[in-house]
């Protein structure tokens, strides 16, 4: 049914043909459209949409040359469809006359072609809805091998064009050696919030769900807008204008977080004036997506955001969470590099500090603070491009034991680490505590109103603080130890006569079973507390660790009393004698 296709062309021949057509048209041989194709395009000024242009003139010429048109290939409707699609593909390139000749050649391959009718059909199509995509779909159906040949050419031509453009771009700015300069005259980095957020760059806050990252983001905003240091070590440079965009929660929820942070930290409206801007999920903001040719920034979105930031004179933008402002696959470095490029452009051209709030991976959530900057979910490109990475983790079981925090309360204590500090020295971990603030907004139906979380600073107690006791407790412990035999004052926590059992009895604690797997979290916490008391007592001197001979005649590490603590009833303790003296 189909006529034999023209002989296959080499890439060199095809590129030479492009050059010849370009010379006739006075252009580079590429059309106004990018390489590739589609269905239809919408021109500016509200005009009727037309088909997508062909990648270039030679691609369109090839497609029509390789389109079979012997008797029986097309019925009239299909023939008209070829005309519509070819005309649409030619319009965007501005080669309607030349393409009309190629269409006539295509029509002449039909044995009973009416030249006048073919010409009339071509000229009647003013704004055809079909274009390059439609033409290639027809060619794919009637001549798959020809369609493949056209696609191969387009790929080769695209590569050649991109290669030339890249070479020109690389060579546009010649290298020159660095000349003498005075480092004292170099502009300093524009830190806006401690050493966490810096103008012209983006930073990342990484946390698992339920860790309080949105509460911390809002507290950061209040601190920056008021110019007050609400968390130690996070000092704003000066009062600045900050925009918090939360794409998961409504605007009203944003206002509640703001109210909670202000109320708890005593910040009033005069402190922040007009320097805080809020938006919620009702404000759509998508910056990157997967397009027909792969990952891309949403056309106009980044530029529009930059314009908005400039117009409102924003200094800091917090996006919470990052995953809601793009639709790219997060595990692909190729895709995420596109997003990172957009974020850098926003921070640089709007001259802001950009903060991206992001989730941790499941594996990193299990690892806690040990995961470091790598805790971020998805590809490494996001973290690699960040200037600072703050990692939030809930207090671990061990940290709760060490701090004497009940097991059920540890999720309220948040460790804040700087997992990456490219432009400043890494600091020690900070601690904060989640607190609930009642807004007093109850009504007849909901009498209690809303309790909204915010954060406050919290300090991990030192070893000495963790073993701190009242005078009465110390007296009770020293007295119990003084009257006990050596085999009841053993220093090793796993021994049957562990001295901790004496302390347990005096303080009303519960150390639980000898085996760790048989103890409850509260019993583990009590064991840690007793160990801290012993360590603190030895450090201060009211307890002493020595080897003593036990009743079985064997020397073992034991705990005895040292210097009576300040305020102890020495006379009362002097009345107590040891039943076994050291040999």
From TrEMBL:
Keywords: Hydrolase. This is Putative nucleoside triphosphate hydrolase. The lineage of its organism: Bacteria, Pseudomonadati, Pseudomonadota, Alphaproteobacteria, Rhodobacterales. Residues 22-51 are annotated as: Disordered. It comes from the Bacteria. InterPro entries: P-loop_NTPase. GO terms for molecular function: hydrolase activity. The keyword Hydrolase applies. Residues 22-33 have a biased composition (Low complexity).
């Amino acid at each position: 049914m189909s006529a034999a296709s023209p002989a296959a062309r080499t890439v060199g021949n095809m590129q030479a043909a492009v050059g010849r057509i370009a010379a006739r048209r006075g252009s580079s041989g590429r059309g106004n459209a990018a390489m590739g194709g589609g269905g239809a395009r919408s021109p500016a000024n509200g005009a009727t949409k037309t088909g997508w242009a062909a990648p270039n003139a030679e691609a369109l010429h090839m497609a029509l040359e390789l389109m079979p048109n012997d008797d029986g290939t097309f019925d009239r409707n299909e023939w008209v469809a070829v005309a519509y699609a070819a005309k649409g593909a030619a319009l965007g390139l501005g080669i309607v006359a030349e393409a009309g000749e190629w269409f006539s050649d295509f029509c002449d391959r039909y044995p009973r072609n009416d030249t006048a009718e073919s010409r009339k059909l071509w000229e009647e199509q003013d704004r055809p809805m079909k274009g390059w995509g439609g033409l290639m779909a027809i060619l794919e159906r009637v001549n798959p091998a020809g369609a493949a040949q056209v696609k191969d050419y387009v790929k080769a031509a695209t590569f050649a064009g991109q290669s030339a453009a890249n070479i020109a771009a690389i060579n546009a700015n010649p290298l020159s050696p660095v000349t003498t300069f005075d480092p004292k005259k170099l502009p300093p980095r524009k830190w806006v919030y401690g050493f966490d957020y810096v103008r012209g760059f983006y930073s990342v806050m990484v946390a698992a769900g339920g860790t309080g990252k949105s509460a911390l983001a809002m507290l950061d905003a209040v601190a920056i807008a008021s110019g007050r240091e609400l968390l130690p070590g996070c000092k704003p440079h000066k009062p600045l204008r900050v925009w918090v965009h939360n794409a998961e929660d409504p605007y009203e929820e944003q206002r509640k977080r703001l109210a909670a942070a202000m109320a708890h930290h005593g910040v009033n409206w005069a402190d922040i004036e007009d320097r805080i801007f809020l938006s919620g999920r009702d404000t759509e903001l998508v910056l990157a997506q997967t397009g027909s040719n792969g990952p891309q920034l949403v056309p106009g979105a980044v530029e529009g955001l930059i314009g908005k930031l400039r117009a409102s004179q924003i200094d800091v933008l917090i996006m919470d969470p990052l995953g809601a402002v793009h639709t790219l696959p997060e595990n692909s470095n190729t895709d995420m590099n596109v997003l990172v490029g957009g974020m850098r452009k926003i921070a640089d051209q709007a001259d802001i500090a950009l903060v991206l709030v992001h989730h941790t991976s499941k594996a990193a959530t299990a690892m806690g603070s040990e995961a470091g900057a790598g805790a971020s979910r998805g590809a490494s490109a996001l973290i690699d491009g960040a200037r600072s990475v703050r990692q939030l983790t809930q207090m671990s079981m061990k940290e709760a034991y060490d701090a004497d925090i009940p097991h059920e309360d540890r999720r309220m204590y948040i460790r804040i680490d700087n997992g990456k500090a490219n432009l400043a020295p890494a600091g020690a971990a900070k601690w904060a505590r989640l607190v609930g603030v009642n807004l007093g907004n109850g009504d007849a139906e909901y009498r209690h109103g809303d309790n909204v979380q915010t954060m406050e600073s919290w300090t991990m107690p030192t070893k000495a603080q963790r073993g701190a006791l009242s005078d009465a407790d110390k007296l009770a412990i020293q007295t119990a130890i003084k009257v006990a035999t050596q085999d009841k004052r053993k220093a090793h926590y796993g021994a049957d006569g562990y001295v901790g059992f004496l302390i347990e009895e005096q303080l009303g604690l519960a150390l639980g079973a000898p085996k760790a797997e048989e103890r409850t979290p509260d019993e583990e916490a009590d064991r840690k507390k007793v160990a801290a008391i012993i360590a603190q007592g030895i450090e201060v001197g009211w307890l002493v660790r020595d080897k003593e001979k036990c009743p079985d005649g064997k020397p073992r590490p034991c705990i005895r009393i040292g210097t009576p603590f300040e305020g102890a009833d020495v006379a009362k303790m002097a009345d107590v004698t040891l039943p076994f003296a050291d040999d």
